[in-house]
Known about the structure:
By secondary structure, the protein is an alpha+beta fold. It folds into two domains: 4-37; 58-173, Orthogonal Bundle (Arc Repressor Mutant, subunit A). It is 45% helix and 18% strand. The protein has six helices and seven strands. It has helices at residues 21-37, 58-65, 89-104, 111-120, 128-137, 156-173; strands at residues 4-10, 13-19, 68-71, 76-79, 109-110, 141-144, 151-154. The strands form three sheets. It has a three-stranded antiparallel sheet. Strands 1-2 form a two-stranded antiparallel sheet. α3 (89-104) packs across α6 (156-173). The radius of gyration is 24 Å and the shape is elongated.
Amino acid sequence: METHKIRVKVGAHEFEAEGSKDAVEAQFQAFLELVKAAPAPPSSQGSGSSGEDVTREEPEQKRLDRVYLYDENTGVVSLRISPPGNLTHGDIILLVLLGYELLADEREIKVIALRAALVKSRRNPSRLDRAIAPYRKAQKILKGGKSKGSWYELSNAGRIEAERILDSVLDQVA
């Protein structure tokens, strides 16, 4: 008896079989039918012209909509929910900065816009600089500019911390 062996990769699917010619052909035909019936993997490319635009999956957008409110007319990203009481003003600021990145595709947020977002989120510290100070010291929030033209942005470590806080908030409101 002659042994046939086949190894094939179709997109993300792999197939490997060994045996008689008829058995391998039957298994391969069954594999092809399964691949045809499988849903297509989500596209990582958006409809934008640059390769960096990423299409948000609908479940992710709905997940964000449970926490954030984005007013396209004013450009303000605020928290839709009243965050749990154990979060500090600095934690709320991390969440708002992350919201600007995710929903408005903005990284450098002017102090005036951040203040407006915090007021709309019903969490407005009397001194923004003091609320942010521990996160600036830990290099989780970066600051640029001077006076009224100054802005804040999340560092990579700040983004990780903000995502951790977001996951925690989503777990509590689920």
